[in-house]
Amino acid sequence: xxxxxxxxxxxxxxxxxxxxxxxxxxxxxxxxxxxxxxxxxxxxxxxxxxxxxxxxxxxxxxxxxxxxxxxxxxxxxxxxxxxxxxxxxxxxxxxxxxxxxxxxxxxxxxxxxxxxxxxxxxxxxxxxxxxxxxxxxxxxxxxxxxxxxxxxxxxxxxxxxxxxxxxxxxxxxxxxxxxxxxxxxxxxxxxxxxxxxxxxxxxxxxxxxxxxxxxxxxxxxxxxxxxxxx
Length: 230
Description:
Blueprint: H1 6-9, H2 15-22, H3 25-39, E1 44-45, E2 65-69, H4 94-107, E3 125-129, E4 134-135, H5 147-159, E5 165-170, H6 172-175, E6 186-191, H7 208-218
């Protein structure tokens, strides 16, 4: 049996927009790199069948907000395929804890102890990393294996949508992608990264969650129930 390809695991709603990228030499290179990692005794996260976890249950036409991350968490049982989210069995990493702190300060709410932000996806929030895999214990180890061709296309597809879309860019890495997001129906909000190394520079007071909802309301769109994260 032939090994699974990136096209095989890509959710059907996204395939028309990604078909040429996921059948390209770049995609074959990503697949070969991931296979070689395993053959060499390394582990990578998330598992192959969860690489497109950010797209699950969310069609291109459904996206109303994009939160852009860098690469997956590199610890055991952390990465889910969605940016900043961790599995229910993992403690909250510092960046996610700081996102919760900003949310509570912004909206004057108290969230649950788990803070599972994946539920935002059901409201049209795309939690996308620009690199979709990472070697265990080695952050940014897969940043140069070709993922940007895939994720840049994803960003461009969402940005070209006729629906109003908000892009939340936290940190310099995410902000470098802003040129892909320009459009008359898009709003770009930038802030420092929620990492403890930079959050103190203004992340906690950026009020991006309320700003997103205010703008969506002005566009005649329903708001995001950010406090639903449990």
